[in-house]
Design a protein that fits this description.
4 domains; mainly beta; about 550 residues; disordered N terminus
Length: about 550
């Protein structure tokens, strides 16, 4: 049992015991060091104390009556009897514990009638593991601004300098401390160029890092700088050039010994779920160590099936139609994403409401707008289907038919449909395909939730049925998700000419409209007359 010094206040009794016997390990990263560094050295930051209901640790003190720093705490009220080592009688609900020399100590306090509280104490000077952030709550100075806010351990406070380039921030540690990493959590006003320096006498300084012409984004931004093995009493940030018109500003500056990194996680994300064959898709790969920090390691990529595409410089280029799995691997860790590769063009696109409109039928417009706006290639225009049956948000008011039919002009094999809904979307709809505008087959059926939910439905692969030899496409909503109707920004239908009906398409069903690109502009030729994309005759 470890030696415990006690001091009692107020008439109560308790039994206090402390030991270093084996117990479950505590994750000390969850707990902050205690003490505010005030009072001329009266307070200390050597301890962490486990949070326990009913135990209120006030601070760490070194009062005149004590030989060493200790934990000053308030215990639950109602204590009536107290003994220490079954011998000492005292009084009080405030107990002072001192002489913690072990790195981790378990403390149990028992109090009448039959209550007890058990907690753990971490003493940074009691073992090899010292204070992790060696500048935390240490004395801080600056050329301007409130210096101590830059190392107070509070992510909600920050040091902000005057708005000039020649500003500095300095930390004076209580003793020489070892570190190999400096971390700066920048507010938006970051340093474009700066230096880090160390000293043991505040007179002779050694440069340990020189960062120049950097561009940062995504704030708060945590910048981690490897500075080599250092042992110093002073650490100084020296601003060289600001990135903004404001001063230098960081939420926190930390210095610590970074352990050898061990790769634990590989994360892989693609910027989209689909990509057109022949085009590229950007991949983002993140590798993290045991502390969740980014780790610079070599990553290799594989594509399955192999012939489906390639990955170079973080970009996947699709080579064939269908589903593909992309895997990023580093050592024994890997991550995968699934991507659908589609072919063809948007065969639903209508470039002019009068001269090139594929909409051949639609539900009554009423208070709505022409369905042309759902296939005009403009995300800024919107088709509003038939008017609602009322203003109340009821099933009856939201249940009505709203639809349109497209004539693609030829038969296509469809491989992807995207429908971009406005917030007033559809709760129930079906998408139908037909070769003759008479025999309709369901391609997709949707039943969702009510409410405002702007989103895009991507339909491909197993989500689409009856996709071959399609000339006619029908969108049919039977129930709106809100009382505001049902609205679509844009519907795209990606397809290629059907091979099995190519002769029929060529002889009979080829559209009379021919589209071409001249000098970078879309030209539409209808019955020998040339039109612009806006429907104006070109002579």
């Amino acid at each position: 049992m470890k030696k415990i010094s006690i001091r009692f206040f107020a008439m109560v009794t308790m039994l206090l015991c402390a030991s270093t016997m084996a117990f479950a390990a505590v994750d000390w990263s969850k707990y902050d060091f205690i003490g505010d560094g005030a009072g001329g050295g009266k307070y200390s930051n050597k301890y962490k104390v486990e949070t326990v209901e009913g135990l209120n640790v006030v601070n760490i003190q070194h009062p005149g009556f004590a030989e060493e720093d200790g934990i000053y705490m308030t215990l639950p009220a109602g204590i009536s009897e107290c003994s220490v080592a079954s011998a000492i009688q005292g009084a009080g609900i405030v107990v002072y514990l001192s002489a913690f020399t072990a790195q981790e100590t378990e403390v149990t306090i028992k109090y009448a009638p039959a209550n007890e509280v058990t907690f753990h104490v971490y003493y940074a000077d009691g073992g090899a593991a010292k204070k992790e952030n060696v500048v935390l709550n240490e004395a801080a100075y600056a050329s301007s601004g409130t210096a101590f806010l830059g190392n107070d351990g509070n992510a909600g406070t920050r040091w902000e300098s005057a708005a000039t380039d020649d500003q500095w921030w300095l930390c004076k540690m209580a003793e020489e401390s070892e570190f190999n990493t400096v971390q700066i959590v920048w507010e938006g006003a970051y340093a474009k160029s700066f230096k880090l320096e160390v000293s043991n006498d505040s007179t002779t300084w050694t440069e340990i890092a020189n960062i120049q012409d950097q561009t940062l984004a995504g704030f708060p931004y945590t910048q981690t700088i490897t500075v080599g093995d250092q042992k110093a009493k002073y650490l100084r940030f020296v601003g060289v050039e600001r990135a903004t018109g404001y001063g230098y500003s960081f939420w926190e500056l930390r210095a610590f010994v970074k352990k050898e990194q061990v790769l634990t996680t590989v994360e892989l994300k693609a910027e989209a779920d689909i990509v057109k064959v022949g085009e590229g898709l950007k991949l983002t790969t993140t590798t993290k160590d045991q502390d969740g920090e980014n780790m610079d390691v070599e990553v290799t990529y594989t594509v399955s099936p192999v012939e489906a595409g390639t990955v170079e410089n973080g970009v996947f280029t699709a080579a064939q139609f269908g589903n593909v799995t992309i895997t990023a691997t580093s050592g024994e860790k890997s991550a995968s994403v699934n991507v659908f590769c589609y072919t063809g063009e948007n065969v639903a696109l209508s470039t002019n409401i009068d001269n090139d409109n594929k909409v051949i039928a639609q539900s009554e417009i009423g208070q709505g707008t022409n369905a042309f706006f759902a296939v005009d290639g403009n995300d800024g225009s919107v088709w509003q289907g038939s008017a609602t049956n009322g203003t109340a948000d009821t099933d009856e008011a939201r249940t009505y038919d709203s639809w349109f039919v497209l004539d693609l002009g030829a038969k296509y094999d469809i491989n992807l449909v995207s429908i971009k809904f406005e917030g007033a979307c559809s709760q129930e709809y079906h998408l139908d395909f037909s070769a003759d505008n008479a025999d309709w087959k369901v391609a997709y059926n949707y039943v969702g939730n009510k409410g405002i939910n702007g989103h895009t439905d991507l339909l491909y692969g197993d989500k689409l049925a009856n996709t071959t030899t399609v000339r006619y496409v029908r969108f049919f909503s039977t129930k709106a998700a809100t009382q505001y109707g049902m609205k679509i920004f844009e519907m795209c239908v990606m397809g290629v000419k059907s091979i099995e009906s190519g002769v029929e398409n060529a002889a009979v069903e080829m559209p009379s409209v021919v589209k071409m690109i001249e000098n970078g502009q879309l030209i539409i030729v209808r019955d020998g007359v040339r039109y612009s994309a806006q429907g104006q005759v070109i002579k």
